[in-house]
Amino acid sequence: MRKRIFRNWGLKIASLLLACILWFLVVAINDPKETQTFSNIPVTLVNTELLEEGNKVYEVLDNTNRVRVSVRAPKSIIKDIQASDIIAEADVSRLTDINTIPITYSVLNAGSEYTIEGIPSSSVVKLSVDEKASKLVRVSCTTTGEPEEGYMVGRIQLDLNRIEVTGPQTAVEKISYAQITVDVSGASSDMSLNGDIMLYDVDDNRLELSNVKLSEAHVHVSVPVLALKEVPLQFGKTGEPADGFLETGEVTYEPSRVMLAGTSYALSQVARVVIPPEVLDISGATEDVVKVINIKDYLPDNVSLADASFNGNVTVTIHIEPKVVRNLEIPGSRLSISNVPEGFVVEQVVQDGAYVLRISGLEAAVRAVSAEGLTGNVDIAAWMAEEEMEELSAGLYSIPIRFILPDNVVVEQQPEARVTIVKEDEGEDL
């Protein structure tokens, strides 16, 4: 049996080759039909202007404008068909009541010896058709990140603060505002860029609306990055309180220091915020003077308050108190005489009892002065200068007694000492 199988090898091989040749000849003569499937074929929508003329807009649903088709044709034809040869079209004029359009197919350069059809799920294009709507929405800008330490973001400027959005009414109605986000992380100088516009609803949710067109996709943004500097406040005042009242010298205000923002050069010129004296007039005051001053009005150019929540109002209080008067008795034993011109002597001081020194000032200051700690001085040279006296003559004089008092205490009534001045040689004869 085995010998029969392997007998006449040459004849058997020749028969096999002949059979193959005959099969190829039959195929070539008959040209049998074959079927081939093509995927991801784009569907072209035609006559879309019909929707536009009706003020309608559309959106393709479920990616139905990409289809799979089956082509059946003779093998000699189908072997040359490429996906790019398949034409799929949907005519908007055939739009149904349920917003579907049947798809028609054809094959380029394939003659008529073929059949083509969509896979069952690819027979129609599904549309969402809506009224066309437009509206203006505001454009804002926000930042993320933090600039370099010692810097802050100033007032952002947008070249446009409104854009027009156009699309299906249901989509347009969802849009509340447009926003650009700028990352300022580590910034220490001004930024200038074209920012991408994003759409948001009323709940601040970002909207992805491919069927909505924007009049501008980008807006130029200028982001000033300002230097920071903390400085004190300084208040001047003008006028005097009413008679019988004094300014205590205490001025209270809050805050006492403020943080400023501006260019580095502008801030280098600012050591403090100075409020001019005429702003605080205490003329005729009989009680504390309280005034609200907006320090923004006194900031240099290119400088602003860094804290946006601070409106710049500072309440300033200048404290006023009644003047207190007090009499002090100074014994004559505490009186000294100085600067007697050469050639003269003070012969005697005539005084019965103590000298009365009348002082005034704020209560705390006046009460702090002790009569026991005071000494008086009669300065002859100073008295002559006040009297514009160039030469001294012998005689009896009343000369003011000078006392060393605190700066905030005033002598209301200057006591005088009666002194007898004689020439030195006359004094010796006596």
SSE inventory with pairings:
Elements: H1 2-5, H2 9-30, E1 33-46, H3 49-53, E2 56-60, E3 66-74, H4 75-78, E4 86-91, E5 100-107, E6 115-118, E7 124-144, E8 151-153, E9 157-158, E10 162-168, H5 169-172, E11 177-183, E12 191-196, E13 198-200, E14 206-207, E15 213-214, E16 218-223, E17 225-235, E18 245-254, E19 257-262, H6 264-268, E20 273-275, E21 289-294, E22 303-305, E23 313-322, E24 324-330, E25 335-338, E26 344-350, E27 355-361, H7 363-367, E28 376-379, H8 380-386, E29 395-400, E30 402-403, E31 409-413, E32 416-423, H9 424-429
Parallel strand pairs: 1-4, 7-11, 17-20, 25-28
Antiparallel strand pairs: 1-3, 2-7, 3-6, 4-5, 5-7, 7-10, 8-17, 9-16, 10-15, 11-13, 12-16, 13-14, 17-19, 18-23, 19-22, 21-23, 24-27, 26-32, 27-31, 28-30, 29-32
